[in-house]
Specification:
2 copies of one chain form a homodimer. With 207 residues, chain A is α+β, with helices and mostly antiparallel strands. Chain A is built from 7 helices and 11 strands. Chain A has helices spanning 63-66, 88-97, 99-125, 128-142, 155-162, 166-178, 194-202; strands spanning 9-13, 18-20, 28-34, 37-42, 48-54, 59-60, 74-77, 81-87, 148-150, 182-185, 188-191. In chain A, a hairpin with a 5-residue loop joins β4 and β5 (48-54). In chain A, α2 crosses α3 (99-125) and α4 (128-142) crosses α7 (194-202). The longest helix of chain A is centred in the middle third of the chain and has 27 residues, at 99-125. Chain A is elongated, with a radius of gyration of 19 Å. The interface between A and B is large, with 46 and 46 residues. Chain A binds a DNA duplex (30 and 30 nucleotides) through residues 127-128, 154-156, 164-171, 174, 186.
Chain lengths: 207, 207
Amino acid sequence: MKILSGIAVRLTFNRTEIIFQDGDKGDGIYIVETGKIKVYKLSLDGKEQILHIFGPGHTFGEVPVFQGKSFPASAMALEPSDIVFLPRDRFVELITTTPALSMNMLADLSRRLRAFTIQIEALSLKEVPARLAAYFLTLSKEQKNAARIRLPISKALLSNLIGTTPETISRMLKKMGDAGLIEVQTRTIEILDRESLIELSESGRLQ
Amino acid sequence: MKILSGIAVRLTFNRTEIIFQDGDKGDGIYIVETGKIKVYKLSLDGKEQILHIFGPGHTFGEVPVFQGKSFPASAMALEPSDIVFLPRDRFVELITTTPALSMNMLADLSRRLRAFTIQIEALSLKEVPARLAAYFLTLSKEQKNAARIRLPISKALLSNLIGTTPETISRMLKKMGDAGLIEVQTRTIEILDRESLIELSESGRLQ
DNA sequence: GAAAAACCTTGACCTGGATCAAGGGGGTCG
DNA sequence: CGACCCCCTTGATCCAGGTCAAGGTTTTTC
């Protein structure tokens, strides 16, 4: 990414600062250097559904660049974050002159389509305990299959990510604890019975 | 698409025939010539969530080509369909040697990401009547804002597309009729009160 | 390091919509 | 043209999980 300096712009955001909003016109892509970003949708009555959480190395905001319209969702910094902004024209030039880069971009968008497919499946075909279990398993996989995982976000945010409420998260965590699947300590989850957790994530029902 | 002949393969499918299944290895892309295809997810207990319905001119099955894995969902013909299959290697060659083509592909994937964003928002933040209303408005827009629209799929499929059941669709259509928003005749919907339908689709609740 | 703010938990209650069951068309293929 | 099949409708019942309320606990912030 060193190539980009001189054209790219470095931006900094504090916690809770908005980077762009659903409907804004998009004129470039964003690259996370440090920090953590949520991309989300709000309903009119204020409920939130999180679509992605991005960390260092991730890019976001491409959709309007390739499909000349507005952002389909909003983005907010969850921590103090450094973001590199690359203007549309320069980015399109890079992409069109660098086949490998465009293949990378196609792969990145495909990865996100796959992730959305899984999210739609979860929201429509799975119940809350299954979604929670799947989330923990994904986290564990990201952390080299550790049995002890640390939640990267608060439970309030987690509820908006998997499409439920903090109260329900609380109750389900308790149930999963009672069932001997996990043990919860504040921000840390210990996976006690991975087999059952996998079964739960695929279809199962709790107890 | 004439360029492709000689390398591409023409396939035909009858109604209900499966084109590929969730988890299969993908080794090329599919282009619909005639017919209608659904791309969908099944739960273990047989419930279905439709992700896309594709018609003539649409391409599908790209995700595994760009992100070397399996299909994230299944595809089935809804009518007798002619499909052109373009093998991976040839397709990647085309893409990498034709910047305009790769930009088209990026735009297509971006369009789908946008559509998924809307679908996730609908499933998570909207109730069934709002999803139905939004579906009718989308249909109307596709049919040059006609007030009289024809459903391209059965109500049973529609229920799997918007994430509910045929029974609920039936009840909601009746309520929307009673409220004077629409009038239903078998496969045709007449929009009587577009304003209220828009309001309903955005947040509203029925009566 | 104390005050304020955000976050989390638990209980009681409520409701949207799923499920189960049973009839009623309507298109289509011998 | 009649029989089958699929699709749709309507009613009765049920339940996962949302909402409201209140109290306790961590985190931030100054």
